[in-house]
Amino acid sequence: MKNLKFIGIFLLFGICFSCSDNDELTQEQEEQNLIQMFSEIESSARSVNCNDSSEWDFTSYGSKNCGGFGPVGFIAYSINIDTQLFLEKIEKHKRAQQRFNEKWEIISDCSLASTPISIICEDGSPVFAY
């Protein structure tokens, strides 16, 4: 009976410690994950043609590691997509980039991204006005 308990505990520890997480990924693998996440964000943002700028909004994305966590830039999106899901993806990407920057000690250029004041539709694409 004691052997069964020992085997059970051993298996439990083996299962717990064999689970992979981001600590096992290389810097390049984590960077590719960030690129893939942002690619999905961009695809969602570009899934609608820009014909009426009043149906568009923008948000910051990414995270620079520079005495705080300023955005990398801004991205326009149609209010006709699932904005809640879109903004959740933006936030998830932002947190992942913060962790990546801290873990790999990424240094930023510390430049501030210019905040757009509005969006203009040009040839079906959103363009920022500053």
Give a verbal description of the structure.
The protein has one domain. Helices cover 44% and strands 17% of the residues. The chain is built from three helices and four strands, in the order H-H-E-E-H-E-E. Helix 2 packs antiparallel against helix 3. The longest helix has 21 residues. The protein is globular. The termini are far apart.
Offer a few descriptive terms.
130 residues, alpha+beta, two-stranded antiparallel sheet, two-stranded antiparallel ribbon, 3 helices, disordered N terminus
Brief description of this entry?
The chain is built from 3 helices and 4 strands.
Spans of at least 5 consecutive residues whose pLDDT stays below 50 are: 1-20
Share of residues in strands? 15-25%
Order of helices and strands: HHEEHEE
Number of domains: 1
- Roughly how many Å apart are the termini? 74 Å
List the helices and strands and how they pair.
Elements lengths: L1 H17 L8 H19 L10 E6 L11 E6 L4 H21 L14 E5 L2 E5 L1
Antiparallel strand pairs: 1-2, 3-4
Helix pairs in contact: 2-3
